[in-house]
Structure formats: structure tokens, C-alpha cells
Amino acid sequence: MADKLIIVMANSDPRNGEELGAPIFQATVAAAMEYEVDVICTATSGILMKKGFAESLVVKEGSPKSVYDFIKDAHGAGVKFYCCSPNLDLFDMTTDDLIPECEGIVGGAHLIEEVMEEDCKVLTY
After folding, report:
1. Nearest-angstrom CA–CA distance, 56 and 4
2. What is the tens place of the pLDDT at every residue in 51-60?
3. In CA terms, which of 54, 60, 97, 112 is 20 to 30 Å from 84?
4. In terms of C-beta density within 10 A (0-12 exposed, 13-18 middle, 19 or more buried), how is residue 61 classed?
5. Residue 103: CB partners within 8 Å, gap ≥ 6?
């Protein structure tokens, strides 16, 4: 059985808040089950790692919790968030623009290496 879960948020569009709940919630649950969990935000979802952006989003209209609150909960449970390197250019960011919960920048080779060398499972959203 795998000890690690990698969640790739590539198709989760921050302009549609409902798409953001499931991957972050699943990451939190897996971490609570004591799995090592990495969430890699790439493509459009990479903007979630920019300071101030996820604070303005909700999964459901009228919710008192922002998407950033869910990210903080997941991080508190042990989830590690990463931003894909092309997102810095795509969204005019530097590493100083990243939320504190973001562990750092990774490139495409990182994901391939993790999947091929680790005993892990991958979920893509």
C-alpha cells in the first residue's frame, strides 16, 4: 500500500469555487489518515499560491470560510503545497508572493520523479 498521495490541481479553476473544495478536502482527510500528502498547484490553480488570492474565494456562496482557510486547515493537518515553476511567470509572481503554506516551487521533473521513485498514488483534479 502506498504511503504517499500526490494531488495535482491542474484543471481546478479558481474562477469556479466549487472545483476547489474536493481536492483540498481530500488532501486534509488523507493527511488526517497519516499519509504523506503533497498538493501541486499548476496551470490555472497555481494562482491559489499567491498571497491574498485564495482569501477572496469561497467554495460555496455565503460560506464563512475562504479557500485560504481550507488551505490553512490542510496545511495544519500536514499537507504540503507546492507551486509549479511556470506559474511564477504566468501570474507575474516571485517567491516572495507565495503564501506561507506553500513549501516552494517545483518543476515538471519533480512530479515525474516522485511518481516513478516513491511508493505513491496520484489524484488529478
Report:
1. 30
2. 999 999 999 9
3. 60
4. exposed
5. 80, 81, 82
For the entire predicted model, the pTM comes to 0.94
- Other C-beta atoms within 10 Å of 54: how many? 23
* pLDDT, tens digit (0-9, with 9 covering 90-100), for 11-42: 899 989 899 999 999 999 999 999 999 999 99
Q: All domains of the chain, ordered by start, with CATH?
A: 4-124 (3.40.1260.10)
Q: Which three cell numbers stand for residue 18?
A: 466549487
Report whether 39 contacts 82 (CB < 8 A). yes
Q: CA 82 from chain center: how many Å?
A: 6
- Helix, strand and coil percent figures for the chain, each rounded to 5: 45, 25, 35
Between 67-77 and 18-32, two packed helices, what is the crossing angle to 10 degrees?
Answer: 10
Residues 27, 125 contacting (CB under 8 angstroms): no
